[in-house]
Write a structure and sequence with these properties.
With 257 residues, the protein is α/β, with parallel strands linked by helices. The chain has 10 helices and 10 strands. The chain has a 6-stranded mixed sheet, with helices on both faces. Helix 3 crosses helix 5, helix 3 packs parallel to helix 6 and helix 6 packs parallel to helix 7.
C-alpha cells in the first residue's frame, strides 16, 4: 500500500530549483532511503514533506489525503514525525522529559485541568512518563532515564531523538542523517534501531550519507541530483546504475588526453 505520494513536486529559492517536478512514492512497512550529492535537494524534500516549506507546484498525499502545505503540527497529528540533521534536544530538561515532549499532541492541553492538576491529568502524565521510559528502552538508552539530557553522549542523544519522534505514535518516520557524526559502533546501533522501528510497523524514510548503512538496511532507494530524480530501486539496482556512479564519483576521464 502506498502511504505517501508526491506528484510533480517543485520548490525553488530565488532562481534555484531545489526540487523539480518530482514523482515519488513511499510504500507502507518498508525502509526507504533518499541519497544524492550535497545540494541534491534531499533536505528540501524532507522539509516539504513535513510542512516546513510549501511547494511552488505539485501535491503531497498522505494516506490518499492531500496534505500539501499543511503545517507541521497538523502533519504530526496525522502520523508524520521526523528528526533533524542537527540535534534538537532541550538541554535544560531531563532525558525522559525530552521524550515526553514528543507526546504533547496526545495529552490534555486545556488550561483548567492543567492549572488544577486534576487526578485525570496526573494519571495521564504518569502514563506518559512510563511510555517514554519504554521508548527509551526500545531505543537502547534506558540507562539515561534518570539523567539530564546535557549529560548524555552524542550517540545516545541521536537515539533519544528517535525515541522522542516515536512518542507521537507516527505511521511515517523521517530521519534526517541519523548517523551523522557517529563512530562505527554508534552507527551500528542506529542501524539496528532503524530496523527495529520498521519491524514495529512504522514506515521509515531516511536521508543519509553513510552508504554502507543505506545499502544494508534499505528496501528502496531514491537518488536525487540537482533536485531531480536520477534513479530509484533496490540497493542492488542503485549500486549498479551508471548514472548514480557518475553522480557520486564523476565521469571517467578518457585515457587519450
Amino acid at each position: 500500500m502506498t502511504l505517501l505520494r508526491v506528484e510533480g513536486l517543485s520548490r525553488s529559492f530565488g532562481g534555484v530549483l531545489a526540487v523539480s517536478e518530482l514523482q515519488y512514492a513511499v510504500e507502507e512497512g518498508r525502509i526507504h532511503s533518499i541519497i544524492g550529492p550535497n545540494g541534491a535537494g534531499k533536505t528540501t524534500l524532507f522539509n516539504l514533506l513535513t510542512g516546513l516549506y510549501r511547494p511552488n507546484r505539485g501535491r503531497i498525499l498522505f494516506m490518499e489525503r492531500d496534505v500539501t502545505g499543511c503545517p507541521p503540527h497538523e502533519l504530526a497529528r496525522l502520523g508524520i514525525s521526523r528528526t533533524f540533521q542537527n540535534l534538537q534536544i532541550c538541554f535544560n530538561m531531563s532525558a525522559i522529559e525530552n521524550v515526553m515532549v514528543g507526546a504533547h499532541l496526545r495529552l490534555d492541553q486545556r488550561m483548567t485541568p492543567t492549572m488544577l492538576r486534576t487526578p485525570a491529568l496526573v494519571r495521564a502524565d504518569a502514563a506518559c512518563r512510563d511510555e517514554a521510559a519504554q521508548l527509551m528502552a526500545f531505543a537502547g538508552v534506558e540507562r539515561y532515564v534518570g539523567s539530564a539530557a546535557d549529560s548524555m553522549p552524542y550517540g545516545a542523544l541521536k537515539r533519544l531523538e528517535i525515541a522522542r519522534a516515536l512518542a507521537s505514535k507516527p505511521k511515517l518516520l523521517l530521519l534526517d542523517e541519523p548517523a551523522a557524526g557517529l563512530n562505527a559502533v554508534e552507527t551500528r546501533q542506529i542501524d539496528e534501531l532503524i530496523q527495529k522501528v520498521a519491524a514495529s510497523g512504522v514506515t521509515v524514510v531516511l536521508v543519509e550519507h553513510d552508504m554502507k548503512l543505506v545499502m544494508n538496511i534499505s528496501d528502496h532507494i531514491l537518488v536525487l541530483n540537482y533536485g531531480t530524480k536520477l534513479a530509484e530501486g533496490s540497493a542492488q539496482e542503485v549500486r549498479a546504475n551508471p548514472d548514480v556512479i557518475a553522480a557520486y564519483l564523476g565521469e571517467s576521464v578518457p585515457a587519450a588526453a
